[in-house]
Amino acid sequence: MHPLRVAAAVLTVAALTACSSKKDDPQATTGMSWTADGTAATDPAPQVAAASTT
Length: 54
What we know:
The protein is α+β, with helices and mostly antiparallel strands. 31% of the residues lie in helices and 19% in strands. Strands 1-2 form a two-stranded antiparallel sheet.
């Protein structure tokens, strides 16, 4: 039973560490980017338009 408690404690610490609120990542950028024929392109504010022909 003792190894089960140790394993549970290790998993709990690992889960709490993985779910920390510290922000190490830079802020995500918005928009989209792609490469066509070796040329990079970006659109900072893409839009979607829906239409129906029926």
